[in-house]
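Why should sequence recovery work at all? Because a backbone constrains its sequence more than one might expect. Tight turns favour small or flexible residues, buried strands favour hydrophobic ones, and helices have their own preferences. The token representation captures these environments compactly. In the example below, the structure is given first.
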């Protein structure tokens, strides 16, 4: 028998106070799950994106200059 089926059977035998406690526990489990998820800081993500974009631009510019130099060397051969 699956766990969910077992739980459903047990729930059928609980009184209202016990059902309220089960509901509170389920709420707690959901709350705890949300606490373990990493929070996404939009401002931090935007700052990192800008830093990486600038670094990529600088690397691309450096690469283009090197590429042009290599083409010139090849033409001179």
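From this structural description, the recovered sequence reads:
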């Amino acid at each position: 028998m699956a766990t969910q089926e077992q739980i459903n059977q047990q729930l059928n035998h609980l009184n209202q106070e016990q059902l309220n406690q089960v509901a509170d526990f389920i709420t707690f489990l959901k709350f705890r799950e949300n606490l373990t998820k990493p929070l996404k800081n939009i401002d931090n993500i935007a700052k990192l994106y800008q830093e990486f974009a600038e670094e990529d631009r600088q690397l691309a510019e450096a690469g283009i200059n090197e590429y042009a130099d290599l083409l010139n060397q090849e033409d001179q051969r």
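A few observations help interpret the result. The chain has two domains: 1-37, 39-77.
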